[in-house]
Design a protein that fits this description.
7 helices; two-stranded parallel ribbon; alpha/beta; Glycerol-3-phosphate (1)-acyltransferase
Length: 244
């Protein structure tokens, strides 16, 4: 029964994603800044639709902490719990993501994400990571904030990974870019990855917290900047718990 429900929901997600992706592709000839002015409402609709079709029971906290100019000049960071993180964040933050190249293989969603300014990279290649980081920083400096996941991969049990990749946060300090941290709690249960295909688990309680932004001018070094940015996420996750 759960497999059938997942199939139905997946078909509906695909039906919603196809026109959204096509809209992005048709606008590819435009500069990214102009493209984003047009597709922001389309992207928001896609994220809200996915949250509905995934059946998540999401609570947003700290929305008032999102700066009014968050779309320009911010590196947005979050912990990573699964594929549902993108629509969960995208409902409130209409921004492109740094994404693993495997997403490009997802029909329509992959090419649509690239058209919408998301930056793909090969997680196994250090050189690819560095090039992607430069693209992210350049995109932010061109007034298009971008969302990244410093953990590099999703957490299977909801706990934060012991090791993160702080290079982008450190470079943000060097280039004078602000950081907006976000914390996601409970999203690892939105999809069941135990079988051959992920199964959608409706009515999963999820909390998304938007935390105080960081200004590089208030920190003495890139190390303290990166450490404090991630510590805010750690504290937010520790303060919030959901039943297993």
């Amino acid at each position: 029964m759960k497999t059938l429900e997942t199939l139905i929901r997946a078909i509906l997600i695909l039906l919603v994603s196809v026109p959204v992706a096509l809209a992005g592709i048709l606008l590819l000839f435009l500069p990214l800044k102009v493209r984003w002015m047009i597709i922001k409402p389309i992207n928001w609709f896609w994220c809200v639709s996915l949250n509905f079709l995934l059946g998540v029971d999401v609570t947003y906290e700290g929305v008032e902490k999102i700066p009014s100019d968050y779309r320009r000049g911010y590196l947005v960071i979050s912990n990573h719990q699964g594929m549902s993180d993108i629509p969960l964040l995208g409902t409130k933050l209409i921004l492109p993501f740094l994404m693993k190249k495997e997403v490009l293989k997802i029909p329509f969603i992959g090419i649509g994400a690239a058209a919408y300014g998301c930056i793909p990279f090969d997680r196994k290649s250090q050189e690819a990571r560095q090039k992607a980081a430069q693209k992210v920083l350049s995109q932010i400096e061109n007034d298009i904030s971008t969302i990244t996941f410093p953990e590099g991969t999703r957490s299977k049990d909801g706990t934060l990974r012991d090791k993160i990749h702080p290079a982008l946060i450190k470079k943000a300090w060097t280039r004078g870019l602000k950081v907006l941290p976000c914390a996601i709690i409970g999203a690892h249960r939105a999809l069941d990855y135990s079988g051959k295909i992920p199964l959608i688990c409706p009515h999963t309680p999820i909390t998304v917290k938007f935390l105080e932004p960081l200004n590089p001018k208030e920190f003495e070094s890139e190390e303290t900047y990166a450490a404090e940015a991630w510590s805010r996420i750690e504290r937010a996750v520790q303060e919030t718990s959901h039943p297993n």
